[in-house]
């Protein structure tokens, strides 16, 4: 019998023993300890707009950042949302099975909350380790445990079919069928739910190979023959040495002094752990804790200037992102900010993301081809960073020049002559003028007027 991972997929919790094929599929999906995944989902309820996510996994725990829709807005209707607090602020969610707690924090806010993992009143956290094992994504979310298929009374295996099929039968006569593709380590390519030959719900999964593992690239959920929800994985990394081995609230980036509400009452975050209100005041008074960031955010909120109320102000033609020309990993954020600054709409947004994909794909190919050399340079640089000896500094400067030369095609050809100028051709003259008008009173302060004047 195959060993079952610590957190078993919710859809496999039938009262009967799941067949070995299903256990094998589950093991294949969870054949990693750590992961970093960029993905998105869309549904008919969001007018098929894409909601972008970033997830980290370490053991049984998951940390997810909800970055909103393509324009950075948390709500579907941007026009109605503008002016409300935090609508452009990412949502941070930590599901810690280790502690039994679910942490929630909205970036730019000074308050966070903790719920029990089993508490479904807070935001569901879709778990990509489960998605596609069931006919409905809610069954595969961290908060969907109360909806698991525990009423499956028996399983049947049809190994002679291709792909092999496992059928689960419910007490009420409904059936769930898993179609398990051997080429993808017997992970499901289709799951159906129905009765008497009529399929009411199903999921269809396409796979791609990431870091040597087969993992979903696209999952469609279908109801009565119509696709109503889609998940897409844009990037996935597994078991890389730079991945964090554990996920804690410190991973979320909450500022020191954030108030955290839970069943224990109100406590304060000191950057590492929770402390009592009294301890927070004493350590702040002694100068040990710096509450300046929380104070800044609170002051802005008190005068109605809520952070995240409008798209973030950017600086310069790099939109506030240091080193963006040679860092393809943050080009997505650059495009997101560009869309916000110039108020791109509809097809303009689609074009912007198409350009991002075009140039990011090229950059990824280049980075893959030069990964070993770049890693060798970075490994040589790290031990030299703390030294002040002259010969070491000379060696460090030479290594940095070598790194810059290696990254020059990324910076010069793909960003400065590729992605950036092509993005600047998208806004209309009116959209550019709006940016100029906003910056007219403070030219040189944010640099947005320089952006608007680009050809």
How would you spell out the order of helices and strands? HEEEHEEEEEEEEEEEEEHHHHHHHH
The CATH C-level name of the largest domain is: Mainly Beta
Main sheet attributes: strand count, strand direction, barrel closure = 16 strands, mixed
Straight-line N-to-C gap: 65 Å
- Total beta strands: 16
Write out the CATH superfamily name of the largest domain. Answer: Lipoprotein localisation LolA/LolB/LppX
How many discrete domains? 3
- The CATH architecture category of the largest domain equals Clam
- Which structural class do the helices and strands define? alpha+beta
Strand order of the largest sheet: 7-8-9-10-11-12-13-1-2-3-4-5-6-14-15-16
- As a whole number of angstroms, the C-alpha radius of gyration is 25 Å
Helix amount: 25-40%
Strand content: 25-35%
The general outline is globular
Task: Give a short synopsis of this structure.
This protein is of the alpha+beta class and 455 residues long. The protein has ten helices and 16 strands. Helix 7 (371-381) crosses helix 8 (390-424).
């Amino acid at each position: 019998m195959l060993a079952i991972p610590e957190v078993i997929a919710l859809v496999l919790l039938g009262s009967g023993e799941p067949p070995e094929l299903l256990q094998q599929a589950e093991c294949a999906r969870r054949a990693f300890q750590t992961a970093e995944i960029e993905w998105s989902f869309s549904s008919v309820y969001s007018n098929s707009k894409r909601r972008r996510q970033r997830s980290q996994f370490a053991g049984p725990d998951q940390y997810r950042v909800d970055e909103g829709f393509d324009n950075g807005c948390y709500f579907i209707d941007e026009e109605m949302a503008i002016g409300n607090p935090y609508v452009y602020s990412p949502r941070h969610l930590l599901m810690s099975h280790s502690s039994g707690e679910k942490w929630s924090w909205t970036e730019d806010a000074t308050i966070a909350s903790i719920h029990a993992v089993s508490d479904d009143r807070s935001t569901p956290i879709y778990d990509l380790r489960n998605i596609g094992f069931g006919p409905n994504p809610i069954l595969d979310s961290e908060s969907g445990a109360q909806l698991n298929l525990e009423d499956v009374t028996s399983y049947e295996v049809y190994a002679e079919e291709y792909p092999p099929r496992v059928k689960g039968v419910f007490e009420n006569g409904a059936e769930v069928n898993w179609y398990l593709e051997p080429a993808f380590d017997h992970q499901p390519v289709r799951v159906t739910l129905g009765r008497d030959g009529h399929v009411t719900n199903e999921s269809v999964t396409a796979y791609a190979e990431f870091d040597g593992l087969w993992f979903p690239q696209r999952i469609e959920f279908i109801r009565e023959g119509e696709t109503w929800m889609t998940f897409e994985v844009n990037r996935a990394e597994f078991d890389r040495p730079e991945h964090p081995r554990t996920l804690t609230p410190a991973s979320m980036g909450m500022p020191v002094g954030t108030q955290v509400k839970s069943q224990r009452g109100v406590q304060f975050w000191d950057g590492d752990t929770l402390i009592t209100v009294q301890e927070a005041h004493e350590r702040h008074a002694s100068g040990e804790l710096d509450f300046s960031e929380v104070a800044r955010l609170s002051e802005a909120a008190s005068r109605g200037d809520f952070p995240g109320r409008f798209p973030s102000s950017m600086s310069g033609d790099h939109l506030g992102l240091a080193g963006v020309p040679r860092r393809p990993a943050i080009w997505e954020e650059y495009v997101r900010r560009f869309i916000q600054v110039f108020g791109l709409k509809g097809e303009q947004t689609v074009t912007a993301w198409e350009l991002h994909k075009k140039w990011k794909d090229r950059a990824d190919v280049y980075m893959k081809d030069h990964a070993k050399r770049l890693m060798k340079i970075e490994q040589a640089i790290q031990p030299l960073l703390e030294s002040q000896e002259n010969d070491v500094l000379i060696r460090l400067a030479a290594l940095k020049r070598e790194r810059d030369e290696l990254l020059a095609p990324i910076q010069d050809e793909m960003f400065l002559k590729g992605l950036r100028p092509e993005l600047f051709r998208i806004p209309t003259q009116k959209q550019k003028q709006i940016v100029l008008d906003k910056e007219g009173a403070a030219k040189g302060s944010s640099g947005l007027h320089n952006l608007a004047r680009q050809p």
